[in-house]
Amino acid sequence: MPALLERDAELGELARRLASVRAGAGRVIVVEGPAGIGKSTLLAAAVEGAPVLRARCSPLEQHAAWGLARQLFEPLRGSAGWDELTAGAAGLAELALSAGDGSAHAGDAMHAAVRGLVWLTTGLAERGPVVLVVDDVHWADPPSLRWLALLAPALAELPVGVLCAVRSGEPASAPDLLAEVLAAAPEPPVRPRALGVEATGTLVRARLPDASGGFARACHAVTGGNPFLVGALLAQVAADGVAPDDETASRLETYGADQVARALERRLARLGPEAAALARAVAVLGPRAPARHAAALAGRELARGAPPRPAASPAAGVSPRSAASPAAAAASDPGAAPPGALDLAAAARAADALRAAGLLDPGPELTLSHPLIAAALYSGMAVGERAVRHADAAAVLMAERAGPERVALHLLRTEPARDARTVAVLREAAARASARGAPQSAAEYLRRALGEPPPAAEEEAEVRLELGLALAAFMDPSAYDHLDEAARAATEEQRGRIALSGARALGLIGRFGDAVALCRRGLAAELPAALRERLEAELVTNGMTDVATIGEARRHLRRGAALELWRVTAGMDAMMAGRPAAESLAILRPALDRRVLAGEPGSLLGTTATLHLIASDELAEAIALCDELIDLARPRGWLIALAHGCMMRALALIRAGEIRDAEADARLAFDYKLPVAPTPAMLWCLSFLVDALVEAGDLDGADAALTAAGQQAGPPAGVLAAPLLLDSRARLRLAQHRPEEALADARAAGARAAVLGLRHPILAGWRATAVEALVVLGRTAEAGELAREQAELAERVGTPGARGGALRLLARAAAARGDAAGARRGGADAGARRGGADTGARRGGAAAGARAAPRDDGAADPLALLDEAVQLLDDSPARLEHTRALVDLGATLRRANRRADAREPLRRALDAAGRGGMALLANRAREELHAAGARPRRTAASGPAALTPAEHRVARLAAEGRTNREIAERLYVTQRTVETHLTHAFQKLGIGSRDELPGALAADERVVALDPAVRGNHEDV
Length: 1021
Ligand SMILES: Nc1ncnc2c1ncn2[C@@H]1O[C@H](COP(=O)(O)OP(=O)(O)O)[C@@H](O)[C@H]1O
Ligand SMILES: [Mg+2]
Known about the structure:
This protein has 1021 residues and is an all-alpha fold. Helix content is 64%, strand content 3%. Strands 1-4-3-2 form a four-stranded parallel β-sheet, with helices on both faces. β3, α7 and β4 form a beta-alpha-beta unit. α14 crosses α18 and α33 crosses α35 (679-695). The longest helix is centred in the C-terminal third of the chain and has 33 residues, at 800-832. The chain starts with 7 loop residues before the first helix and ends with a helix. Residues 310-340, 827-851, 853-858 and 1005-1021 have low confidence and may be disordered. Magnesium ion is lined by residues 39-40, 135-136, 165.
């Protein structure tokens, strides 16, 4: 091959980008252009001499699960350092890379494999810069593309480059994923240009030294300077023995893919039937075909006689003579083809001939020298003929006991024949692809299996179920249609089981309504009692989440059944209705004690039970359940379960006043669910994230999350998460000093909750927000009214968290009325002075319904109410409510001119708020302390309280003795991110080493135990 011509600019550009990769700023680098323009050549030249991992994608392997990833890592597997590389989370990559059936893995294999590959790549990068060269990435298999898409954003902080070539205008196997990968490139693609006249002339003379100048110019004109076409044209001219002179030049016409194809047929004909058959066999088998496979396949062609081929049109305008060449005539004579199989020696000679002609790459495995050659050969076969060849290929591979996934690639391209064996192989291939985390490939195989179709109706239903489950695994919206069709086409005996697995898969990905519909269909069949109970419970737990199905769900509620799943749903129903917690928990608890949910993997029932526990302030138990799920999900890379667990734990942690941890959990869940989950499912994470951010004082962050989720306008009607989200947004608006909007959102939340029959004072906590907004707006009568309603609901539920929270609201409302009354009585002067207003409050406050002893004049005393609230909450895990009550108590005392008394609750509040990251409350406590004449420490710029949630979490894990890598794996972030967080944490804690972490973090915890005198030292008096 002549030296690379006219590529200085492109090579320089690539060298610059690759240098930045080596310097640690990794990236996606794209080379784009039409077929034959020189992309592959440019890629190879750009990385010449550097250690790289390479893969070349092909049309056949678009459906090969992890085909691209396997090619890239193949050379490393089995190498010395491999075990070390795949220790820890990177070991999940083995799912994708090993030929095993992956059956040991349960959970979400797709994310597990993708994560494992990301870890493997980052691990590799620790050893030095890595460049992944991916040629013809438009043919990459979807699972591998998903990995690259996930890797791309992390590249910037790794010395890892993904250098890929993409053919412009070529339809991609997974356009969205490909677009995502390509869009991650920080700079526009490098586009190799067509060769100029001069460079074309150089190519011409290298091949045909006698060529005339006119001929060279004509070569450039008819090929447009495309180097592949120039090469093909020259090969044809040379083979035809035409003189490269001006006369030939005058006869040259536009030279493109069609001309290449026709010339190729003639060249093959000259090389003889064996070489021709072998070339076609390789075109069918795809790149890197073992010679024995190609020989076997070519042998079948030869045995059958020459295949019918589309009639070749007369030779393209080089020389009229070439069409009538004797060799071509010989090849089209079936008599000239030797009968029987092609033996290996003959095949080896044929392969050599093809290599000599430049049609095959050098190397023992057989690969056609250019995809355009493969395409020409392939499209040269008639459609039916191709299908026959692929059936042959499948047979050859099966005879060698090749893996079902390899065989399936060919079965995808055969004619359907209602063949049971074909269906069996495709199902087996799909099962393996699914288990190895490639549900997209599995879906392809199963679609083809359905098209076969399976001879027996029962099997057809099973195949459709498998297809639906595969689609659900990558959240494809068409999953439901197939699952429903499977349940409908099923026999009475199959139906319930199919409906249940489908419903659980759909519930897990947040398609609650679809899950209900499937349960409904399943329940229409005759069912064994246990299956019926499962289906009913699944219907209820999904159906409760939307007004459209909640009535149906309630009709399916029942009490009493062997598996005790009914306890989860009946308990949930009682909780939602605002029944006493003691009563609703008594329904649920036996099911938890007997761990019945452990036997129901993939069901939404676990989430339901956790929600019930949190609403009832059984926070430790709820967190333990979440931890269990998270610990199960994390090592498996089961991201959806991890996100579920983190999401619910976030809610529990918010109630527990652990805002930093809550924010980190909610963030993980939100980031995972936002792009993939349907809105009704995503809203839960969003609501908890907004709550956490508001309490953390990050109001802009909360607004940004709402915007990112498209929820500034408001959640869809009828969904259970909507009242929660609206209330979260209301609290945000309140904190933003936008009380009118806060009130509107709180009221909207109330209306949504009412439609769903949601009467729980915490899950439907909108009254609390509304009371605070109304107080700010001076609408004290309404505030009092709502506070009383909340108090009644809370009394009924009966948990200290609910009751304490409601008492605080009553106090707020009472104080506000007092303010108003005082203002009226004392005139503008007294009303303007806060102390005066408070006096009014204590004299004239008239809130009723409080348990706090009314004073002699029958009015509820805000201070008494707050005292009682604090006492109630002192022993409750609801630390957020507790801290709120402390702040309000301190503030009220202070306004009553009891400044000394005010300091104690305010200091307690400030300590608690600092510990848990309740910045909103900490600010208020600090302001009140100032007003009370104390000098609290400022917003901590140092010490544990200054850590962000992410820093805090990383620091805690490091304090437990985990390595950066372990922490990164655990938190699903890069190691670089961990390092950054730790550096900041060290600075803020004023320490220099890991060993000091436990002490530095614990300093914070100790504050709780300190007595008030010592605590005083905590302030920078
Ligand atoms: N700059 C160049 N100078 C000379 N020959 C080239 C050049 N670029 C590509 N070629 C030749 O053109 C043919 C097609 O190039 P290739 O890189 O395979 O194109 P693509 O990958 O864009 O389809 C190859 O035979 C290659 O040797
Ligand atoms: Mg190429």
